[in-house]
Amino acid sequence: MERDDIIEYSLDTHHDEEAGKKIRKKIYFVTVLLSVVTAIEVAMGIIWGKAHIDVDGMGWLTIKSIFIILTLLKAGYIVMVFMHLGDERKSLRNVILIPYVLFIGYLFFILLVESSFIFYVKDVIGWV
Amino acid sequence: MAGEATKAIDQAELWGGGRSPFSVSYGKMMMWFFLISDALTFGGFLSALAFARHHLEDTWPVTENIFFHFPLTHAHLPLLYVALMTFILIISSVTMVLAVEAGHRMDRKGVVKWMAFTVLGGAIFVGSQAWEWMTFIAGPDGLLSTSADNASLTSNPYGPQLYADFFFFITGFHGTHVLSGVVINLIVLIRSIQGWYDERGHYEMVEKVGLYWHFIDLVWVFVFTFFYLI
After folding, report:
1. Is the distance from CB of B39 to CB of A79 less than 8 angstroms?
2. How is chain A classified by DSSP, letter by letter?
3. Between these two residues, B172 and A124, which has the higher pLDDT value?
4. Nearest Cα residue in chain A from B65
5. Rounded to the nearest 5°, which phi and psi values hold at B70?
6. How far is residue B124 from each of residues A127, B83, B93, B133, B197, measured CA to CA in Å?
7. Which one has a higher pLDDT value, B224 or A8?
8. Is residue A51 a contact partner of residue A45, using CB atoms and an 8 Å limit?
9. Per residue in B213-223, is it b (16+ CB within 10 Å) or e — as a string?
10. Does B12 fall in a domain?
11. Chain A residues lying within 8 Å of B28, measured CB to CB
């Protein structure tokens, strides 16, 4: 039978030099990845920024989407590797991420919907 | 950490309920709770920004036309200084995670070295933000003295008032976090030098302040995208 009174705390997670080498290798990999993604974002912002692109066209929507996807990619690596959430129990991970993502995702959605309506009322119909 | 449990925990270290939820210590759990609430505040800020700019899109300023200054030069370098600040914060996040790793090996020298770099990176970031604010407040003519076209919470020479308000609130709230993070990191650095954590038998405090510091980096990643890039 599995004992459930034995709990491994984060206080006891020591590791030796061997394991440390592996962890550091992963850290350096994520460092390079985050730097490269940031460099790509900045280059895109300079070359295809709002100043040089037709904001109403599909082009800007694509650029915007790429920015958001790259940002979420960076955020994922920071949370899972740097904050070690990837190494915690799955239940802790879910308790932290799922309610937050649901709530803020809905907040963004509803505020953008309302914002579109305000734009419509003010600038398209001209009620205000 | 994943893997099979190897030893039973001392009754004194157990939580009141007899066991730890999620196999993390009390301090780490509470740090995560705090970070979730803090993340909700920043999420509120950023979604409010999205709300405002979405219906003011026609008059919303283009970031590249405002943030093109770089210290010690008059060249037109859009976004580059902000990009440098982002890079500095990412690197200080890396040195933080290296400090946590050194802590797991009980390597006091390593912790001290990496924590020192982290404090340095954070201090450079706060200084850069002060410079950024100064440049932004000065307005298009670059002079702080003329109040006519200086940016503030009640006047904004660049476009809609909300643009300046969101700039001050979001980067200001984030900057306050960085400042307090630098202070907390400094305290942990001093305590590592003094050998507090060797005496305690573990460097979990480095891990906990590390969570806070990475969170600051995480928020900046989003601020950089939603305020500066888009």
Report:
1. no
2. ---SS----GGG----HHHHHHHHHHHHHHHHHHHHHHHHHHHHHHHSSGGGS-TTSHHHHHHHHHHHHHHHHHHHHIIIIIS-GGGS-HHHHHHHHHHHHHHHHHHHHHHHHHHHHHHIIIIII---
3. B172
4. A51
5. -140, 140
6. 49, 14, 13, 14, 27
7. B224
8. no
9. bbbbbbbbbbb
10. no
11. 10
B180's CB contacts (< 8 A; 6+ apart) are none
Q: How far apart are alpha carbons A93 and B36 in whole angstroms?
A: 12
The structural domain count of chain B equals 1
Q: Other C-beta atoms within 10 Å of B200: how many?
A: 12
Distance CA B91, CA B83 (A): 12
Q: B57 and A78: CB-CB below 8 Å?
A: no
Enter the tokens of residue B15.
């939580």
Work out the average pLDDT over B47-70. Answer: 88
Which residues in chain A are closer than 8 Å to B43, comparing Cβ atoms? Answer: 100, 103-104, 107
Closest CA to B69 of B158, B128, B135: B135
- Cα dihedral B78/B80/B82/B88 (nearest 10): 180
Kindly report the nearest CA distance between residue A81 and chain B, in angstroms.
9
For residue A111, give both structure tokens: 């505020």
Tell me the residue range of the domain where B152 lies: 24-229
pTM of the model: 0.89
pLDDT tens readout for residues A38-91 = 999 999 988 887 777 777 777 888 888 999 999 999 999 999 999 999 888 888
What residues contact B230, with CB distance under 8 A and at least 6 apart?
A64, A67, A68
CATH of the domain at B39: 1.20.120.80
ipTM: 0.88
Sign of the Cα torsion A20, A23, A28, A34 reads negative
Chain B residues with CB inside 8 Å of A96's CB?
32, 36
The one-letter amino acid code at A101 reads V
